[in-house]
Each structure stands twice: as structure tokens, then as C-alpha cells.
User: What shape does this take?
Amino acid sequence: MPFVAGLLLLAVAQVHDSAPQVRAGRAAGEMNIDGRLDEPAWASATPATAFTQLNPDEGRRASERTEVRVLIGSDAVYIGARLFDSAPRSIQRVLARRDDPVTSDYFQVFIDSYHDHLTAVRFRITPGGAIQDALVDNQSGTDDVSWDPVWEYAARVDSSGWTVELRIPLSQLRYTAQPDATWGIQFERFILRKGEDDFFAFTPKREHAGVNRYGHLVGLGRVPATRRLEVVPYGVTRAEYTHAPAGDPFRSGHDYFGNGGADLKYGVTSNLTLDATVNPDFGQVEVDSAVVNLSAFETFFPEKRPFFVEGGGLFQFGNVRAHNLYNFPQFFFSRRIGRVPERSVDGDSVAYSDPPLQTAIRTAAKLTGHTRSGWSVGVLDALTATEDTRWQDTLGRDHLTTVEPLTNYFVGRVRKDLDAGNSTIGAIVTAVNRRLSDSVLASLERRQAYVAGLDFTHGWSNRAWSLDGALAVSHVAGTDSSIALTQRSSARYYQRPDARTLVYDPSRTSLDGVSWQVALSRNSAEHWLGSIAYQETGPGFESNDLGFQTGADRRALSTLYGYQDNHPHAVVRNWFVVPFENHTWNFDGDLVFGSFGLLSDITFANFWGVNLRHDYAVTTLDDRLTRGGPLAQVPHYEDVGVSFTSDSRRSTQLSGSAFYQWDRAGQWVGQYSLTLDLRPTPAAHVNLGPSLIRSHSLAQYVTTIADDSAIATFQHRYVFATLDQTQLALLAALDWTFTPRLSFQLFLQPLIAAARFSDLKQLARPGSFDFVVYGRDRGSVVTTAAGDTIHPGDGGAAFFVANQDFNLRSLRANAVLRWEWRPGSTLFVVWQQNLQDQAGVGDFHIGRDLSALFNAQANNILAVKASYWIGL
Assistant: This one.
């Protein structure tokens, strides 16, 4: 084994030694960032000129000459690029908002300033001056575009092609100060009309490409250590124009608010940064999409708040590089911080109320960076306030009810890089502590919630192969009522009457669990790729206090083995075909999911692409369908899906998808979407995407009725309905970029949904998909406008089910004017409108529903926020 390890290390070293180098020159005199490259210092620097195509002709020399020079100054790194073009009139000067993806020529530079072969920063610019900057994480394979450093840039088109000039302050980079620094570096040029991707440090498609395959930036000398201090105070005003009920003592319908605070960024060392915020403004510039969720599980919405998004990749835990995975808990989900309060105030005695829309975050701070010994460090702590709901009863008396307790959130993450980043080990700890002085809140929420975990990654053969894994334990504690809720949650359902390994104990005051996964993957090769992964989450594992978890009590095995061909042919540019399978069991050993699939993707020579998929799922058992009741059966089902994308080089692009699933019981669901993406002018970008979902289900859960006469189903009736549902939505977005620093964005989402519930029925027997329909197979139904009274007809007591039919009509609009009036300082003007109407009709009629939507009362919010960046 030592001999083999030595050979692997030697191979890694040889790969690193063969990486291309670029030598930095010295920045001297005044450097004017105007895109002209006419300062004398540029002429004295040695350019990097050897660029190799990745696409379309892999391995060939770039078709157009590129020269890139690097200069190092006392406080900044300068990048200058001359991008020659034989057809300069074809260069498109597209404008776009910062960080928006754009169809255009571009040049970008990647800098691994830690030189850890794992992380980097990316700076991209187009000929029109549109920019994107991001943090790059080699392990997760994702780019964090929320990172917005303060840097200078310019691009200019001329008769020879175009030029780029960048000034990146050292204060915006993280590095270890040393006598003769060497950084990792990569340059990329994309030529849109040719679909050509050229790289300075070329890695063939059959091999793993990432930060570890960058070239070297040498000649930096002693890069001075920097102590960065950035302060961004802000002020915000908000006006809300709503339709308050007559006599509401809390809202007039014309309500005005103001707030202020500050964000601070301090470079503790040249490679560790402290971010802090006082009274942060977490009003979202972007709105969440409207959804209709009839399941027992929470909808996941991505984080959009800059304080949490920036550097969020450092807190990711347990990532494995498998190509096919089942569901695994997320250990840090920052939207738990500042969430909507858990408790609501309602009832017949409540006449008016003023509930908080979110929990205020008093303070938050995070420390992130890398140490000299190769440790990545991330620590975050946040304190949220006690939230109260003001309300008035029907007699006019005022009340104040606590709906969210004072809570502290903490997450700590460390990761150690080994063998030049080919292997890592890491750990995470999360902690949530609530001050539950209110007895009702104490019965609803857990007082303490802790998670601790270890993870590792190991790659070899230039990371073509990897073995990754993670292990975590959890502990939650509180009152017996709160832990009983945890046991009965949709993630586990301890109360299931036919469960063999789960024991529901309403007297418990704590719950513990374990979750772990391991995956072996072949990540890169000429043709054959694959992975096998095993994941297990114990019944008692709970991470939802600071994570996101929809399932526990699961053991899953996922495999994939596929063939790819990246060599262009006359008709097909590249293609792959991938067979895969997923099987999942609960801890009783019941097979709850079993599926075999085939996925194929083809990119044609004209850059159009098509994706085909087919799944075959065997008959299994479902321990969630009855919402805590006995097992039910899931009939065998199949599905087919097809999607396509048009030529990504064009200013007008079209994409679409169709998906259809059916089973042997007669259930089906169809999903269809079409997206038109067009750029009528270099400054305007329009995106239109209608979508339609239709479904027919025979087993939509409605309610559970306790009845001693229902002997076959454990003295309970598990009531379901046939559900016919239609949902039509449109996502529409307009981006108008006046200058790279001034832009306007408009987002619209109209949505119409209708759901008809019919044939109320009960599960006939555990472990089956057989139902007894009331009024047809047994008993009788008395229907009124309010709902149905069920007489089960087997000696059981009658019960009432309220009318479940609904029509939802919604329109969400969001308009943002963004002006970066000086580097790092931004003015936002935001308008948001929400129209919503509901009815109990149940059938879908587009004319009627659109009319009802546009006749609905609108709630409008107008906000103005200004921030001022101070860099010391």
C-alpha cells in the first residue's frame, strides 16, 4: 500500500508540474482601467498565448489568437486580455445585470489564491461590459454567484477584436501571505458564433476538470497581507397598500415603515474574514414562486438573502459525487433563520390580528476562510427575536400572544485538505436553542436541537474515481408534547399501527438518530461512467431545526452505469445513455420505492439538444399515504419524459418538456412546459415560460376518523378522495440593462389551479390499494354546499367532511430598479404586487378564473433601499 500511495502521489505531482505557467509582471505608474491596455506596464509583461479548444474541436489549437497578461501591484492584481477576432463585426455587445447568465462572447479568469486546488474565485466579462463574479467549489461542483466583490473592469471592441482590463483589489481575495507566492490560475475564452470554448490550462473531457487542473501564476513575489475592513450601512423605507378589513385597529391599508442597519466585513487575517450584520434588512428583492402543495411535506424554497448565500458553499456538508442519489437530509438550511413564526393566532374569538410575516434577526455573524495548515473554517451564529402577534377579540379587547421565541442558531464547519485537495476530512456541528417561557410554544417547538457529523472525500487517478461518505447524529429535546409532535411528523410517523420497529412513546422528552451515506463513483473517463451509493437515515434522526429534511426511517441503494461519447460526428456532437436504479426500504424492511430507469441525452451538430427518459417502478408499499396510518400499496407505474433545447448560440432560444406518468390502477399525471428566451436588443432580455399540469389521482388523502367499528384498519377510517387537478402557470421576466451598473427587472407569475375531490372512500385493508367508496360500495352520502355527511354503512358513526374543492387564482409581480451608483454602493427601488382569489368551485375554466383573478383586490408594496460601501 505505501508503494501504491507513492505512485499516486507521484502521478499527482507530475500532473501539477505539467500545468502551464504565466508570470506576473509588476504594475508601475498609473493604471487607468478603460480597456485600452496602453499603459507601459502591459508591454513589459509576458503574455499567455497557448489556448486549446474544449469545444467544438477538442484538443485543437484555438481558432483565434488570445493574449493574456497579469500584473501584480501593491494593492491589486491586474488582468489584461487582447482577444483577436477575424470577424470583429460579429461580436455582440450584450448588456446584462450583474451575475445574470448571458448568451454572448466572454472572457473569464479563475484564481485559486489559496492554491489549495479546491476553491477559486471567478471573474467574467463580456464585450458589452456585463459581468459575473462567483466563488468556485471544486468538491460540490457549484459556483456561488451571490459573492459580489468590489472590483474594476472595462471591455472595448475594436477593429482587431476586443480587449479586457480588470483590476482586482487584494482586499477582495483570500490568500496566505508567503515570501514567494504561487497561485492557481485559469483563463477561458468563449466565442459565441462558433460555439468555441478555449482554455489556458486544458483538460480533456475524459478527465476530471476543476480547480486542481489550473495553471500556475508565478512571479508574484511577496504578496502583502491585507487587513480588510468594509462597512455597508443601509436605510430602507417601505409603503404597504393593502385592503385592510373595515375597523381593523392594526392596519389602515396605507401603512409606512422605516428601518436601518449595517453590514460589516473585516479581514481578521489575509485568509480569514468576519462578516457581521446588525438589524439586517432581509426583505427579499426576489419573490418565491406560488405553488399548490397537497402533500404532507414542506415545499423547499432556495435561499436568496445575500448574507446567507454568499459563502454558503463552505457550510455544505456530506456532499458525495455520485451520479444518482436518493433523498438525504440537508444539515444547514439558512432559511430556518428568520422564518415565518410557527404559532398562529386564530379562532372564533379573534376579530382582528397583526401577525409578523417573519422573525426578526437581531444580529448575525460568520467567520469564514482557510488557515495556513489547510483547514477550511466556517462559523455562523444568529440571534432571532421574540415575536408577538397583536390581536383584538370580538369584544374589542386587545391581546398580545407570543408566536416565536427568542432563538439562537449556530453552525460550525471545518474541512481539512489532504494530498493537494485529492482527499478531505471534515466535521459539522449545528445547534438551535430556544427560550420557551410560553407553555403553548413549549408544546409546539423543541427547546434544543443539535446535529454533529463527520464527512470525507477521497479521489484518485486525477479524481476520475472517488469514494465519499458522511456520518451524522442528531439530538432534539423539549417537552413531551413537542417530542410527540416530532415522532408523529410526516418524516417518520412513529404512530403507524402496523410498524414493527417504531415505538411511539408520548412521554418521551428527547429523540436521537443517525444518518449516513457512502458513494463510490467514476467521475470522468473516455466513455464509461458510473456510481453506487448507499444512504441510511434512522427513524429518530431530525435536522429540520436548522436543516431541511422530509424523510427518515429510510435505507436507499442507488446505482448508475452509463456510456458517453464526446467526439463530434457529422450529425451528433455528443451523446450519452444511462441506465440506473433506485430502491428504498424502511427500517421494517418494507420496499417503499423500487425503480429502474433509462436516460439519454443527445446534442446535435447544430447545437440543438434532446433528452429522453423512461422509468419503470415496481409495486411497492407506502408508509406515508395514510398520514400515520397503516401501510398501503403503490401500484406499478411507468413514465416517459422528453425535453429539448434549441441552439444556445442564438439570441432567440426555445426549450420545452413533456412528462407523462401512468399506473395500472388508472392514475395519471401530465406535465408540459415551453420556454421562449429572446433578446430583441443587446440591452433587453425577455423570458416567457407557460406550464401546464394535469393529474388524476385515486388516493388523495382527506382525513382520518377514529371509529372502533373499523376493525380492519385498526379502529380508524382513512378517508381518501379521487382528485382531478389542473394547474396553468406562466413565468414571465423582463430584464432591461441600461448600463452595466443600472438595470430594471420585471417578474410576473400568474397561476390558476383547480382541484375537484370526488368519490370519498376509505382504505379497505392495510397493505392494499383497495378502497370502499361511500355511497357506491357501502353506506350513503348526504351532500350540501358545505360538504358531505358520510354514513359508512357498517355500523360506524356518521361523520362530516367539509367541501375540499378549490380554485386558486394568483398573480405575483415584482419589479426592481437596481443602480450601483458607486462601487459597492447600491440603490434599490422595488415594487411588489400580489393578487389572490380563492373559490370552492373545483372545475377549471380559464375565462372565468382569469376574470376572477384580475377582479381580485391587489396588495402593493413599494420599497426603497440605499446602501453605502465604505472600504478601509
Summary: Residues 2-17 form the longest helix (16 residues). The chain has six helices and 48 strands.
